[in-house]
Amino acid sequence: MPGPAAVQYNQDQVDALIRVARGGSNGKMPRPGSRDAPRFSSTEPKELPRFLERMDDMFGDYKITDEKTKKKHVCDFADAVSAEEWKSMKTYIDGTYEEFIEALPKRYGELRHHKEGSLLELKRELRPYKGIDSDDMSL
Length: 139
Fold this sequence. Notes:
Elements lengths: L10 H11 L26 H14 L5 H10 L3 H8 L2 H4 L3 H7 L5 H8 L2 H8 L13
């Protein structure tokens, strides 16, 4: 009895199978607000880097390369407050996608502190060592 015939897939079919395996049910990009969609809320600015990473992954999965479309989708998947603010940015209106993405974290001061560390964080770390001076160290 002959074995099963080998199945041949073209690249579009392979890409669709990969999207389905990654959680896309029908090969279409998730709708903003849907369960599996990336989302950003201005109340959680520390999530911005993760959100942008997920958006870039999605653009790759769905072969979205047009810069204006990417900027639009980033705003579509953000909350209304963020989307309105971001759409008014010069880099959204006139800049490249990369310029737009690089400008977003600069709008959130807490992201700078999150990345670089904050003075308050440093003070908390040093609190247990309060009162120790160089004479207390033995060589």
